[in-house]
């Protein structure tokens, strides 16, 4: 049974055997399954595993198949198991990838030519039957002249083309010419003739956005889309994970970027069928034949995961958003937004901002994909329009698309898709003339999924594989680096319009998930988060004190930095929030080593944030002068005798309140319906920033020692919160309880309890029940400041909760708090007693 997972990031510095060394710790913590980043062979030195070069081999850098067997066996001996992250959408576009290498060598004649999403017949003659390879730092002529392109002999003596550090295969027919040039040199014309003879066209890396003729992962030019919808490709990509599942080495799969696939529903159904067949062999070994499958899917506002996909649920971004939004006080939204707007400048409505960002991305970053879609639409007879006429209409429509994608497939449309298309159409019409509006109406009809002929399928596939990267790049990777209203709400998953979430909305969402996908993962941190869960929890406190914060921030921004020329106000304000959120509670400004480490991390965040925002700098056109100005300003803060000590003082003031929020969202994750997912190291304070900061090595020795120190007795919060043991204690006690009573948490009903009194709206209380087994979960919201003082939770919690009570059924049993061991009994439990020692309560039936 999959009770609780921990996500581990594997790489050469943390291998499968290294993961095995932590099994005892995670077993003691209460984890049932290690949820591993991709283990298929990736590019040499890969730090994440998503740049796969061989789906059929366990990565030797991780220890290979033998190490995976050792890990699986050791886990099974402890009653634990493994879940694998797999990457069916894309592979590394690198010569080390044998499939890709053969395509580069043989072109359309390669056995793998149709395994990748390549347009072999684009307009114009330059790329007919060829692959654009945008790997050069300049144009091909200049690269030849500078020596960036050359020839070298391979290990077998066969000539290979060397281009910007890559050894590329040569078309067999061109080998004699290449040998001549390698040994005797040649004229520029001969070199160009050699290049023209290849099945690829070397090009400047900047040309990819407008000229590439193959599907990329997002806009990354060294990750190529795989056509996993083809049966033979599916078989090759999944042979290893299916074999591992059949052999009992793994118990489930996490599907990366399911929205990138041509037909996600059909893919999930095929995968489930293959796993079910493999499960027969597992059953013969006495293992569960029910596979666990979750998909990485970001749900838009009012969007739900499709129930016709045979999966357990999502990887938990939706819950992460809900839990975080629930911590925020809605009353802080208006003053914080006004402070941002008044100082950062007049900004259009967020929807208009997103539309403009999407337009820029479509024109500058996804031009090739946009035009390919327009050409496909021009081939549809009912549109009776050229690609040139369709392109501007299509661009406006895509810029207004409200969700990641639609899911029409197999000649069948989805009812929900019609509403999303209509919403985009209505919004786009405001930017189109009447003739273009008529064309858009015909375009929407043509893309409703009902037509199953080849031209319509191609157009639909190109549409549905373009909108996901467009949505992600616009919202998560651009807008959330521009909008500084409150950075705790800029995360993977949230909708821009949602600042806070009320108790009623959270209860409805929890109930819907429990009904549709009761085994979905519940996450509050991941390898892709923008800010650690405890950074967000601390910054959420600012929503409870908006005026105090705005006054403090205004003064700090006016005084900080000395005489250094300041960056834009918006960039300084987001830097300030980052410092306040990520500042370790015990870090003193005179701790030189600790300060240097923090400022290095913040500097890396700052550089990435500036480029992702695409306003004053970007990845494609970096403004090094402005980036230097920002870096100089950060260094000036360190030299300013007052600026960082003031941040440290505020961080110390907010840290206890952040603890309250942290424990609240942790308790929700551990107690509500679903499978709690822990990101590596986040059982203690998680003050990480965006990757690679959120993928730093975990200090397991410290965590093992901390867990051992907790013991089994009653826990006093003041002794535990500063070093993170309070959070670790909550995780360990709750997960151990889930291990003892798994049916209660997997199948138990979730009944919301009535709360009365002056602070009723600041409490969520639920009862989990299955037969005689029961769990009482009570957590606060928007009360962090009132419940926390400078040294931890306020001793006078009774004064805050006053007459607030949780009302239980008449037959409610006596309770025992799993943290404090305090007993509670009665139909109305006073929060002044229930939450007197800890700000959250998880209570089990008193034995």
TrEMBL record:
Domain Glycosyl hydrolase family 13 catalytic, first and last residues per copy: 15-431
Lineage: superkingdom: Bacteria
Molecular function via GO: (1,4)-alpha-D-glucan 1-alpha-D-glucosylmutase activity
Listed InterPro entries: GH, GH13_cat_dom, Maltooligo_trehalose_synth_4, Trehalose_TreY
GO biological process: alpha-glucan catabolic process; trehalose biosynthetic process
Matches recorded under NCBIfam families: trehalose_TreY (TIGR02401)
Name of the featured protein: Probable alpha amylase
